[in-house]
């Protein structure tokens, strides 16, 4: 490739002598504007900039050249990519490392580069537009000054923790000093993105620049140019001492800083944060504790100890199975954000939804947000009213959190039409039915809908358990019928499971995937069959949970065993959230389809609960009692009597806490592997993504397939065989699992 | 007079067969004063009343010879929400003349005038008074919504206990007053902030803006000194002196202006108090008639009011670009070219806004990308542009500016010997307006 270094094009020095350079740069170039060097970064092979080896090498060379040029007094660092400053370190670069030491060295090299930046005698201004994450943020905070655009795409953050890592290029050392311990911990331990306005308030950036609208160039292009102009002024201002580098603090901040300087206050913060982390991670995630450790080392023993702790811990974390699992999920998520079925012939511009219940209204919300005309239809005014209110509330909550303005809320809501009849369906490009899970009702609405929709309209069924081919049996055009399984609450749950039958056309699938992706979902596409993939994995685990309850374990204990294994929500709470009636219905249907393998707990227990009105959270009572309090955690007192009548004697050989956990997890995992074996799943990646994002399978395990790889199929089979002896075929390992157990070199993921 | 009236124009006249000729008989205005000065203790209808009386005196029209009165205003005084009616009654017009008030931000009095044109064109009226008024020295400041709710409930509370309970529910935070928003409702952005972003988008520098503002003040000063601002009628303010001049015209120096800090985008913005229009009190009025009626009453009209358009765009990023959209559209409607126009009067909200519009109109890329046009309309030559000052210097009482622009075009056409004039203005909400005016044959 060609040298892309450009020199003083518009103003200032146009000295020929810098043309002598022998370097060939593809990722970094610079232009001299008067006495300011503007370093521009852009990875030619990617939509985003990452701190790859190549980028680091070129950056070092450019920096050396800039520092050696006495005509340059200050530097502006900016990305030429719209929407991205630097999105982080190159994950593949870390993954390619074979040992802790190798990763530690990577971290130390990064630390060194940024130390040079921090100690640069020529002030460096980071001009940030778009994502400034991970290593990108660490780069920016090593600079002397930061200017960021107010663009919605501008986000600053340290997401390393979500990959089981820590900010390994000085982040754990610089952030606490810059924004204080509480804010630094919040950023590093949650990994959340900070928007520009918040970043300014926190002291993470010094100045904000507005985004610009139409002018004599495209808004994106001109906004970057404007950012650069402001940043150049700042750089000159710093050199001329017109711009102070110390942050302006109000009295409150000064007091806070002073209080924070006491070691007992700091210790108090460490212990509070540690406790909170332990409570939330159950000790299953190593990264957060390591982050605290690094911060502490730096604050208590000085920078040398701090940076050393950071690089060493970074190396250790990168080699943990937790980090590898989380990185695997990250790659899986990226894969599931692509449409492998291509671009559909017709974009969905009008979507009609049948049923304004929780799911229907949730689908409506995520659809109107993308400016798609949405018809929400129900059969009673009461149900419709409730559904429309849910959409309004979902959006209004965003207004309260200031992520959208009230005007934007109203404008989004104008895409929604609530109605009781089929008017307007003749213009629908897709209909999603989210009516009651009953085949007869589904058939009825399918026929009604097909009578009014245009021929090219897709009919999607939102069902958790009914086979799509059974629903499609009533259709005049089964090639247009597809399953779209959303998870509740739709606006929060990331997964969408799309189910195709033998007859579903590729274009129909492409259309469903495209809509799901537009709605912001992570999409998996699975084959048809009772329970498809997700419900089919969940059902045996819930059946086991019921048996565990029958054996005398109370719901609270059951919950703590499941959350202790890493599920975000305990099994009993999950059933309450899902609805006991729904769980019973699902168990009954799948029991019929799969027979005794789906047995275990007595279905009658659930049915009795339903008969007594204990349908879970929605009815106020389930395994727990739900009052107006947001966190109700009292066990339903009437439950005891019901459980008593279905009591089973636990077998002490398979009833330790750990046994119970593995009984639950192994049935889940075995069913997942069976789905791959039977071709319900196309690949293990979608299996892992579906389990984690749809069912809360412990993220640090990376999903059922990653779990088998790491835990060992042989060990799992061994455990299952013990259980099988006691309980029978519910624990019979499937063939694919047995194959993996026999040959340890066989892995689901490379 | 500068240009001789020779037929180098695309059209000899804009008169169309089958379309009524509608004329501007005359126009007047009160002196425009910075708010909080001599008018401070008045009410909006007092200013409007003064403009109406001024129009009556100037034209000598009988008080019952007008069919209808329309006024434009932006920030409404709650007590006189139909300020047109209150002002008309107070000005001594016959109480048999209906009056209504319109609002369309900074083009409110343009809307009043074009409403009048519509009524005459439709044959419903022959003579209409249109005007505009704005009074920023006093604006309605309300109790908070919670406090208002409590106060309204208090009226309905039947028992002493209920009343006490309501009073007890008042919290200190409820007492915080609610000022009228200076921000765009849909975007929550102030106009000055948007103007600064607009200037940045078009690469308009601080220096260019200061130079333009200085030009506006200098031209206004000259026009005032030479007595060209003949639309101004003196006003004996009760308890105060007679006011006969605009008081915001203050030509400064580039050095002085450069000292000011940016007013909206801090610290690197370019829009300052000196290159923006300021809060102003004032009122204006014009008498519009069908040509036959004017002639029948013995008037010599000043100008024909011809084609006009309203446009609207994105209120966030194109808030102040109305003139760029409206100008080519109204020219096309009239069958004129930019070069046919002898007199331009554009509303100057901010120097940065004017300069951005000039650049937008001069850009083929902008015309193609955002306006769906094949080419640019062109930038109006500055030697025909706002030669007697503009809103930056004369002041900008939101509701009243439109009539000032139209009257000024008529006066300038006469003074400069031109035939066609063009008025254009931007308005909050991302709206805009333009009108073509033709000189009345001498």
UniProtKB/TrEMBL annotation, chain A:
Its EC number is 1.1.1.211, 4.2.1.17. Heterotetramer of 2 alpha/HADHA and 2 beta/HADHB subunits; forms the mitochondrial trifunctional enzyme. Also purified as higher order heterooligomers including a 4 alpha/HADHA and 4 beta/HADHB heterooligomer which physiological significance remains unclear. The mitochondrial trifunctional enzyme interacts with MTLN. The record marks 485 as: Important for hydroxyacyl-coenzyme A dehydrogenase activity. Pathway: Lipid metabolism; fatty acid beta-oxidation. One of its GO terms (molecular function) is long-chain (3S)-3-hydroxyacyl-CoA dehydrogenase (NAD+) activity. PANTHER family: TRIFUNCTIONAL ENZYME SUBUNIT ALPHA, TRIFUNCTIONAL ENZYME SUBUNIT ALPHA, MITOCHONDRIAL. This is Trifunctional enzyme subunit alpha, mitochondrial. It is found in: Mitochondrion inner membrane. GO terms for cellular component: mitochondrial fatty acid beta-oxidation multienzyme complex; mitochondrial inner membrane. Residues 531-626 form the 3-hydroxyacyl-CoA dehydrogenase C-terminal domain. The record marks 138, 160 as: Important for long-chain enoyl-CoA hydratase activity. The gene is LOC113586544. The lineage of its organism: Eukaryota, Metazoa, Chordata, Craniata, Vertebrata. It catalyses: (3S)-hydroxyoctanoyl-CoA + NAD(+) = 3-oxooctanoyl-CoA + NADH + H(+); (3S)-hydroxyoctanoyl-CoA = (2E)-octenoyl-CoA + H2O; (3S)-3-hydroxydodecanoyl-CoA + NAD(+) = 3-oxododecanoyl-CoA + NADH + H(+); a 4-saturated-(3S)-3-hydroxyacyl-CoA = a (3E)-enoyl-CoA + H2O. The keyword Heme does not apply. Keywords: Acetylation, Fatty acid metabolism, Lipid metabolism, Lyase, Membrane, Methylation, Mitochondrion, Mitochondrion inner membrane, Multifunctional enzyme, NAD, Oxidoreductase, Phosphoprotein, Transferase, Transit peptide. CDD domains: crotonase-like. InterPro entries: 3-OHacyl-CoA_DH_CS, 3-OHacyl-CoA_DH_NAD-bd, 3HC_DH_C, 6-PGluconate_DH-like_C_sf, ClpP/crotonase-like_dom_sf, Enoyl-CoA_hyd/isom_CS, Enoyl-CoA_hydra/iso, Fa_ox_alpha_mit. It comes from Electrophorus electricus. Residues 351-528 form the 3-hydroxyacyl-CoA dehydrogenase NAD binding domain. The active site is at 497 (for hydroxyacyl-coenzyme a dehydrogenase activity). Belongs to the enoyl-CoA hydratase/isomerase family. In the central section; belongs to the 3-hydroxyacyl-CoA dehydrogenase family. The keyword DNA repair does not apply. One of its GO terms (biological process) is fatty acid beta-oxidation. It holds the Pfam family ECH_1.
TrEMBL record, chain B:
GO terms for molecular function: acetyl-CoA C-acyltransferase activity; acetyl-CoA C-myristoyltransferase activity. GO terms for biological process: fatty acid beta-oxidation. Residues 22-292 form the Thiolase N-terminal domain. Residues 299-438 form the Thiolase C-terminal domain. Pathway: Lipid metabolism; fatty acid beta-oxidation. It is found in: Endoplasmic reticulum; Mitochondrion inner membrane; Mitochondrion outer membrane. NCBIfam families: AcCoA-C-Actrans. Mitochondrial trifunctional enzyme catalyzes the last three of the four reactions of the mitochondrial beta-oxidation pathway. The mitochondrial beta-oxidation pathway is the major energy-producing process in tissues and is performed through four consecutive reactions breaking down fatty acids into acetyl-CoA. Among the enzymes involved in this pathway, the trifunctional enzyme exhibits specificity for long-chain fatty acids. This is Trifunctional enzyme subunit beta, mitochondrial. The gene is HADHB.
